[in-house]
Design brief:
The chain is an alpha+beta fold. It has a domain of about 300 residues: Beta Barrel (L,D-transpeptidase catalytic domain-like), CATH 2.40.440.10. Helix content is about 30%, strand content about 15%. The protein has 12 helices and 14 strands. It has an 8-stranded mixed beta sheet with strand order 7-6-5-14-8-11-12-13, sandwiched between helices. Strands 1-2 form a two-stranded antiparallel ribbon. A hairpin with a 2-residue loop joins β6 and β7. The chain is globular, with a radius of gyration of 52 Å.
Length: about 450
């Protein structure tokens, strides 16, 4: 019995040693696995439990190391739960690398990358606009820096362009049809207005147009008597010759020519009005120019020019007719001229006679080849007569009789943009004004291209 008790006591004292050995064998691989899983990617390997000790006695070193291993292994389970993990060696700093000799080699730092001038999508933008991104200024008449007349005209808005044309037309420097499209003839008229008086500038022109009395457009009520000048247009020369007159084909044509414009402009100014169906009593918005009155185009008979000392200069290449007195430019009108070399005249000519509401002898051979043909048609008066409402016969001062003249037209929209058979055509509203400035005996000359002066806008003071 005593022997059995002693044996059990001996086993009880030995149990902790066996349990510790079993625990050590099980926890060593677990600790190694845990260390491998917890190593950060890219960091240096963590320090091991084994430590090399420099000593002259190698056997003592081995014994010390074995003891250290045993102590570290036995304590692994405790550190897993409560102790901090071994600190890893610091990773190499950027710009450094390990050399084979164990020394540290410093790599040169790369040059800094220059900043990208292009702003990123999420970056705040500069509130101050650059000169390139500055919004367009409001369109105005007067500019404050030297700029060409062409650039000044381009700076006008739609209202400004129409007003610019109305001003020139009122002052007898005619821009062509008044339609708000400031093109070739508007610029030619503007240059001549500037050159007509010493000291004028383009700035003065824009200021004068802006200060012009009255509105740019007005409302015109179509009178009942307008119907007296409207009728169907015969289709053939025979039918035209047999008609009582060659009238306007519609009230829209009547209104357009009266106010120096075309039917397309009337439609643009009156979007709510059907221009093809205008009736007496309708109010139509029109350019505010001096109206051409088809009911009163007659010119008083006279042997002298209305503008004493006036002369006519025809600039064939520019398609412009000028009226001058004593070298001073008084008026300018767009014209259509002949397209053949023989249509460019030279020498001194004169106005032989002026006829209002003319009939016209249509001779196809004469119009095409300058010779009298076998068949003629006497076409009656009217705004749609081929020579319009005025005929001014021209003759050279010395030389053979010519068969040409200055006259109106049935197609004012194309003045300056088509060719005649040798005569000089003007819009009906212009040929009436011309006839009131000159008279029989007025001298007519052909000259070279007009050379404008003072076309720059002066600097602001």
């Amino acid at each position: 019995m005593k022997t059995t008790l002693l044996a059990l006591l001996a086993l009880a004292f030995m149990a902790p040693s066996f349990a510790g050995a079993a625990t050590e064998k099980k926890t060593k691989p677990a600790a190694a696995t845990a260390g491998a899983k917890s190593r950060p990617h890219g960091d240096a390997a963590p320090a091991t439990a084994k430590t090399k000790v420099r000593t002259k006695d190698k056997d003592k070193a081995r014994t010390t190391a074995a003891k250290a291993d045993k102590k570290a292994g036995a304590g692994t389970t405790t550190r897993k739960k409560t102790g901090p993990k071994p600190a890893p060696k610091p990773a190499p700093k950027p710009g450094h690398e390990s050399a084979g000799s164990g020394k540290t080699k410093i790599k040169p730092k790369p040059a800094p990358t220059p900043p990208d001038p292009t702003p990123k999508a999420d970056e705040p933008q500069n509130d101050d606009p650059s000169p390139e991104s500055t919004p367009d200024e409001p369109k105005i008449f007067v500019h404050t820096s030297p700029v060409s007349l062409e650039e000044g005209v381009k700076g006008l808005d739609a209202e400004g362009r129409l007003r610019f044309q109305v001003f020139l037309d009122r002052n007898a420097f005619v821009p062509g049809k008044v339609d708000g499209q400031t093109g070739e003839f508007s610029l030619k008229a503007a240059r001549r207005w500037i050159s007509a008086e010493e000291g004028r500038t383009a700035a003065a022109l824009f200021e004068a147009a802006q200060a012009m009395e009255g509105e740019t457009t007005i409302l015109f009520e179509v009178p009942a008597e307008a119907l007296n000048f409207v009728g169907p247009m015969p289709a053939t020369l025979e039918e035209k010759a047999a008609a009582k007159g060659l009238s306007y084909t519609s009230l829209a044509e009547y209104v357009a020519e009266r106010f120096h414009t075309d039917e397309a402009t009337l439609a643009r100014l009156n979007p709510e009005l059907k221009t093809g169906a205008i009736n007496p009593g309708d109010s139509v918005r029109v350019p505010n120019v001096t109206p051409f009155k088809i009911e009163a185009p007659r010119i008083e008979s006279s042997t002298a020019a209305r503008l004493a000392g006036a002369s006519i200069q025809i600039l064939h290449e520019e398609h412009v007719l000028e009226v001058r007195r004593g070298g001073v430019l008084m008026a300018a009108f767009p014209i259509t001229v002949g397209g053949k070399p023989e249509h460019v005249r030279t020498g001194l000519w004169k106005v032989e006679s002026i006829t209002a509401n003319p009939s016209f002898m249509w001779d196809d051979e004469m119009l095409k080849n300058g010779r009298q043909g076998d068949k003629q048609y006497l076409l009656p008066p009217g705004p749609n007569n081929p020579v319009g409402v005025i005929w001014m016969a021209l003759q050279p001062v010395s030389g053979p009789v010519a068969h040409i003249g200055i006259h109106g037209t049935s197609d004012p929209a194309h003045i300056g943009r088509n060719q005649s058979s040798g005569c000089i055509r003007l819009a009906n509203w212009d040929v009436v004004r011309l006839a009131r400035l000159i008279g029989p005996g007025t001298k007519v000359m052909w000259k070279s291209q007009f050379m404008p002066e003072n076309t720059l806008i002066a600097k602001a003071p």
